[in-house]
């Protein structure tokens, strides 16, 4: 039996393909009574006035006008992860509901994935593994080469917290670091990682051996990387995307990869996810795709839930939330 | 002497899958008169006294007593890469021939590959890619998780040039670093990467989440990691090997991986290479293997070639040989 003194937290479901992780439930139940969308829809009248918070996990439950109208005492929506492009922030705010994400939990882990993809692309790791285990392999050719990461130039587009952690990691590989950002970072921050600001994104694209996308998705960053940008990149360069699929013009990317405009790409995100099974990106040898694993470790997923909970509790107690998100 | 400025240098073959790279030939021919094994075999009488050096590219040409005896004026063998476990150093030395390797050229790309393997294993990159492109995939499961790198403990076995570069990189990933080495590094070196010395290998094995092998292969390191060592490791730990296959007892490794004694392995090297196609390691889900890519970048291979040229030019002229390997 759940503790009736605890506030009601609405979640989509527990377990299954996209549900809140079973391992997190005991922790959540320490602070909340949990109610799933299924339970809510079956007994709306019973619960509607009691739901004070929603925990959005992998973009579910879908937050629309209908749901917001049916929850008159909803105070806060805490969204797992850092991206909030799946939420209509203005709409939610209009109902007087506060929103939070979980940026702190994800920074290091997402930076780790960015570097993992950069290294895998440079050294052709996925292809190499296939050769190592293939039944057709009789010997290893000594002429099968990748690109050197140490000393190469990394261009980071989006130098927020995640971008900065990537710069810290890349520096240890003696990489030359260029970055492009809405705002320039402070001089001591730049010096700490040896990062050079490129006011014009074209400069960064032309000089980089690896281009890493670490922006959030907004109307300004939608299709930020299109045909023009890909053509500015070196033909020996690799594009790494750990932002959102929509930051890249996917059709133009396919063309660029097929015609040698750029060398390779590695992406943890696409649009949609998953891609349709006949999409050309799935068949290109010079592409690595991972199934949106940026935050998918046992430790980080739990830290996300912890951060989400602390935001909800702050909101319910009328306090400032550690990671509040406001509409633009 | 003029001959020393453009010394006759024996190579195996140019081009093909394992020969000297075609795009290195121009630079080589600036400094050497290249003689292929085919040319040498066809013209031994004329050439055998002229050859002063061997440019050994991926273990070829094979240097045995016969070859050494047929090259009376051989001064130096330059070997590509850092490993010399395939050479009989005593035998070569007994003919008064010097041996050089290329440790500097391989350290960065090998350390990079060690990091690449550790990250790929922890975050399940290879499996993940297979899921992302599989015709059967309908959605991405929320409970499909990997292991955390940042904040984890990395144990480095072998803290030479490559091991140290691994430490420098791992530190930036906020890892805790332990190391075991024949001799302890100086305090400044340790502090620069936050590495803690484990005099006992057992200590390192018990405390590490990731264990990386970056030793050279010697009688002391043959089967350094066997059943006992694997059992000392955490059941959640991953073994990464960028040394030589023979540093690990492969049968013990297979057992350990099958029975959950350790969690996973990532290997750039095996014994032999490649493994027989029916080998157990090729069929375990918790293993990734790369085809000995440690130094496989254009930049590294070019630098290796240049280093070898320097060693040969010094060796044939009687100067101290850069990167000389002593018996």
TrEMBL record, chain A:
D-isomer specific 2-hydroxyacid dehydrogenase NAD-binding domain sequence ranges: 115-294
Organism superkingdom: Eukaryota
Any one of the GO CC terms: cytosol
Keyword flag Plastid: no
Record's keyword annotation contains Oxidoreductase: yes
Keywords assigned: Oxidoreductase
Annotated D-isomer specific 2-hydroxyacid dehydrogenase catalytic domain residues: 22-325
InterPro entries: D-isomer_2-hydroxyacid_DH, D-isomer_2_OHA_DH_cat_dom, D-isomer_DH_CS1, D-isomer_DH_NAD-bd, NAD(P)-bd_dom_sf
GO molecular function: glyoxylate reductase (NADPH) activity; hydroxypyruvate reductase [NAD(P)H] activity; NAD binding
Family statement: Belongs to the D-isomer specific 2-hydroxyacid dehydrogenase family.
Protein name per Swiss-Prot or TrEMBL: Glyoxylate reductase/hydroxypyruvate reductase
Gene giving rise to this polypeptide: LOC114600817
UniProtKB/TrEMBL annotation, chain B:
Pfam families: 2-Hacid_dh, 2-Hacid_dh_C
InterPro entries assigned to the protein according to its UniProt record, in alphabetical order: D-isomer_2-hydroxyacid_DH, D-isomer_2_OHA_DH_cat_dom, D-isomer_DH_CS1, D-isomer_DH_NAD-bd, NAD(P)-bd_dom_sf
Gene Ontology cellular-component annotations: cytosol
Keyword Coiled coil included in the entry's annotation: no
Domain (D-isomer specific 2-hydroxyacid dehydrogenase NAD-binding) ranges: 115-294
Keywords: Oxidoreductase
Superkingdom as given in the UniProt entry: Eukaryota
CDD domains, A to Z: GDH
MF terms in GO: glyoxylate reductase (NADPH) activity; hydroxypyruvate reductase [NAD(P)H] activity; NAD binding
Coiled-coil annotated spans: none
Residues of the D-isomer specific 2-hydroxyacid dehydrogenase catalytic domain: 22-325
PANTHER family: 2-HYDROXYACID DEHYDROGENASE-RELATED, 2-KETOGLUCONATE REDUCTASE
Family: Belongs to the D-isomer specific 2-hydroxyacid dehydrogenase family.
Protein name: Glyoxylate reductase/hydroxypyruvate reductase
């Amino acid at each position: 039996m759940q503790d009736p003194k605890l506030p009601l937290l609405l979640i989509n479901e527990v377990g299954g393909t996209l549900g809140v992780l079973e391992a997190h439930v005991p922790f959540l139940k320490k602070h909340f009574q949990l109610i799933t969308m299924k339970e809510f829809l079956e007994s709306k009248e019973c619960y509607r006035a009691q739901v004070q918070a929603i925990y959005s996990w992998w973009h579910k439950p879908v937050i629309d006008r209908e749901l917001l109208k049916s929850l008159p005492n909803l105070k806060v929506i805490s969204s797992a992860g850092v991206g909030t492009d799946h939420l209509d922030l203005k709409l939610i705010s209009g109902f007087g509901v506060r929103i939070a994400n979980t940026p702190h939990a994800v920074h290091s882990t997402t930076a780790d994935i960015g570097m993992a993809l950069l290294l895998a692309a440079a050294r052709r790791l996925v292809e190499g593994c296939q050769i190592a285990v293939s039944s057709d392999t009789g010997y290893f050719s000594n002429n099968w080469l990748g690109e050197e990461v140490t000393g190469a130039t990394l261009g980071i587009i989006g130098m927020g917290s995640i971008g900065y952690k990537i710069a810290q990691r890349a520096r240890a590989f003696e990489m030359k670091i260029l970055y492009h950002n809405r705002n320039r970072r402070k001089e001591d921050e730049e010096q700490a990682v040896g990062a050079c600001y490129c006011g014009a994104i074209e400069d960064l694209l032309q000089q980089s051996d690896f281009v890493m996308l670490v922006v959030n998705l907004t109307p300004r960053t939608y299709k930020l990387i299109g045909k023009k940008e890909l053509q500015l990149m070196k033909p020996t360069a690799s594009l790494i995307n750990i932002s959102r699929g929509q930051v890249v013009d996917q059709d133009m990317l396919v063309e660029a990869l097929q015609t040698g405009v750029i060398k390779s790409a590695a992406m943890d995100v696409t649009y949609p996810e998953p891609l349709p099974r006949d999409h050309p990106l799935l068949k290109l040898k010079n592409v690595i795709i991972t199934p949106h694993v940026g935050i998918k470790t046992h430790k980080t997923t739990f830290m996300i839930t912890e951060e989400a909970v602390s935001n909800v509790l702050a909101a319910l107690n009328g306090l400032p939330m550690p990671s509040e998100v406001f509409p633009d | 002497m003029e001959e020393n400025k453009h010394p006759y240098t024996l190579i195996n073959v140019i081009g093909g899958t394992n020969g000297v790279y075609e795009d290195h030939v121009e630079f080589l021919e600036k400094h050497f008169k290249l003689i292929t094994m085919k040319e040498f075999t066809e013209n031994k009488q004329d050439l055998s006294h002229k050859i002063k050096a061997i440019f050994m590219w991926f273990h070829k040409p094979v240097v045995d007593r016969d070859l050494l005896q047929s090259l009376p004026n051989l001064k130096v063998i330059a070997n590509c890469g850092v490993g010399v476990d395939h050479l009989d150093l005593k035998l070569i030395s007994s003919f008064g021939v010097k041996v050089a390797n290329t440790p500097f050229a391989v350290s960065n790309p090998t350390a990079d590959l060690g990091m690449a393997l550790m990250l790929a294993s922890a975050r399940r990159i290879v499996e993940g890619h297979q899921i992302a492109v599989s015709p059967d995939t309908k959605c991405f499961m929320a409970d499909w998780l990997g292991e955390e790198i940042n904040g984890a403990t990395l144990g480095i076995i072998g803290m030479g040039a490559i091991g140290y570069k691994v430490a420098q990189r791992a530190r930036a990933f906020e890892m805790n670093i332990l190391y075991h080495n024949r001799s302890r590094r100086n305090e400044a070196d340790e502090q620069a990467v936050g590495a803690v010395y484990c005099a006992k290998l057992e200590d390192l094995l018990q405390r590490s989440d990731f264990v990386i092998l970056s030793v050279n292969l010697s009688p002391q390191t043959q089967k350094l990691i066997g059943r006992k060592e694997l059992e000392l490791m955490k059941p959640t730990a991953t073994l990464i090997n960028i040394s030589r296959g023979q540093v690990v007892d492969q049968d013990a490794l297979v057992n350990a991986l099958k029975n959950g004694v350790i969690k996973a392995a990532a290997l750039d090297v095996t014994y032999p290479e490649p493994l027989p196609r029916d080998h157990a390691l090729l069929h375990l889900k918790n293993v990734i293997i790369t085809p000995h890519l440690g130094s496989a970048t254009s930049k590294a291979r070019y630098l290796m070639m240049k280093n070898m040229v320097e060693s040969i030019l010094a060796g044939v002229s009687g100067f101290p040989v850069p990167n000389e390997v002593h018996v």
